[in-house]
């Protein structure tokens, strides 16, 4: 069963509660949605919203690092986003290079480690080169892991894992009885990362959009009407406060019941 969720505006208690620094979610995943609509409301082209959204990434990464978050996974480009207009896709493919060229020195200074999650084969060479350079330059860092989901789709990840498992069974390197939840996870893009504790989606949409469907099984979900370019450090804190008010049972029953 998917985690429970609240819209930010519906839970005033989380706004009033103090932030418990001993109960910070280890892994936060964010669906950064609403860039295009943010731009449209201002009479700007959609790419202006994407450009503004990259500035928010820097602020949220810095804040998450300060709070002690271990992993921040950002849904940057989905396998379905190729359906968008070519000029928009071309611009989105240049954003990782632009973002990393601008902010990589600060990420290194903040001890952030960059990783990528997704299918790299279909990405432009310049996009892959920029990300791989950032991964190489930050691999010795041991602070927050900034994990970009780029050309990522959860159904592809699952089908790809199933194909690999089937191939290993076929060759005899894996027995059918060995297949369980833990083993399946090792065939994913980033098996070393623990499942997200908290998922945040901006822009008012309440769906997962093919994002980490397996990994979000017991993740707490938090939705806000705020478009990503307007998302702030304070709103990140409110999401975490709301997370801290919830009782996570992972399918079990708390003692008071």
> What is the average of the pLDDT values?
92
Strands ordered across the widest β-sheet:
1-7-6-2-3-5-4
**Beta strand %:** 5-15%
Q: Name the helicity range.
A: 40-55%
Number of DSSP strands? 7
| Pattern of helices and strands | EHEHHEHEHEHHEEH
Taking the sheet with the most strands, its summary is: 7 strands, parallel
* N- to C-terminal distance: 19 Å
Low-confidence stretches: 1-6
Shape: globular
Q: Which structural class should the secondary elements be placed in?
A: alpha/beta
Please state the CA-atom Rg, rounded to the nearest Å: 19 Å
**Structure annotation, total helices:** 8
Secondary structure layout plus pairing:
Elements: E1 5-7, H1 12-16, E2 27-31, H2 35-41, H3 46-67, E3 71-78, H4 86-109, E4 113-117, H5 125-138, E5 145-152, H6 154-171, H7 181-185, E6 198-201, E7 220-223, H8 233-244
Parallel strand pairs: 1-7, 2-3, 2-6, 3-5, 4-5, 6-7
Helix pairs in contact: 2-3, 3-4, 4-5
